């Protein structure tokens, strides 16, 4: 089997990002973005999706974390798309409902080639430590646009913002893992009536 992995580098006036992704990994991570809560979310995305993930990011954190979080989303989206190659044999669809204490998040994903995000989430506070909770949406928007997937996220219940965002990232990990899994009955075929995604 061809290795489903990729390495992406991005350098702008605001950030310098390096991402390595292996879709067929064991959940091994090396994450350093300078944004501790975001590092925690990327770590559990990797662990629960069983993706090997390395992220090194330097950004203009003296301004805020927006550029860093968004640009990591761009790079991870590009890595995800590149790692999938021609998409032959993949399951394509993935979904998960994950609890985190009182929070319950539903995530449904289609590796469709059409970027689209539905984010039906209300967060009760604007900051978790120093992390602006609106950046969760910014990260997901960048990820979707650059991976070319359709992603629906719906918060079914939750009061604690930390629990809510953690449930979302865990559910995303499980949905992504399902969608990229290889279906033996589809060996060598792209999962689309068009013959292409």
Topology of this protein?
Elements: E1 5-11, E2 15-22, E3 29-32, H1 36-49, E4 52-59, H2 66-84, E5 93-100, E6 103-110, E7 116-120, E8 127-128, E9 131-132, H3 135-147, E10 150-157, H4 161-180
Parallel strand pairs: 3-4, 7-10
Antiparallel strand pairs: 1-2, 2-4, 5-6, 6-10, 8-9
Can you characterise this structure?
The protein is an alpha+beta fold and 197 residues long. The chain has one domain: Ribosomal Protein S5, domain 2 (2-Layer Sandwich), CATH 3.30.230. 34% of the residues lie in helices and 30% in strands. The chain contains 4 helices and 10 strands; from the N terminus they run βββαβαβββββαβα. The strands form 3 sheets. A 4-stranded mixed sheet has the order 1-2-4-3, covered by helices on one side.
List keywords for this structure.
Ribosomal Protein S5, domain 2; alpha+beta; four-stranded mixed β-sheet; globular
Q: What share of residues are in beta strands?
A: 25-35%
Low-confidence stretches: none
**How much helical structure, as a percent, in the residues?**
25-40%
CATH fold category name: Ribosomal Protein S5, domain 2
The major pleated sheet works out as: 4 strands, mixed
Would you state the CATH class? Alpha Beta
What's the CATH H-level homologous superfamily? Imidazole glycerol phosphate dehydratase, domain 1
Number of domains: 1
What's the total count of β strands?
10
CATH architecture: 2-Layer Sandwich
Task: Strand order, main sheet: write it out.
Answer: 1-2-4-3
Structural category is alpha+beta
> What Rg is obtained from the alpha carbons, in whole angstroms?
16 Å
Distance between the termini: 20 Å
Averaged pLDDT, please? 96
SS field, number of helical segments = 4
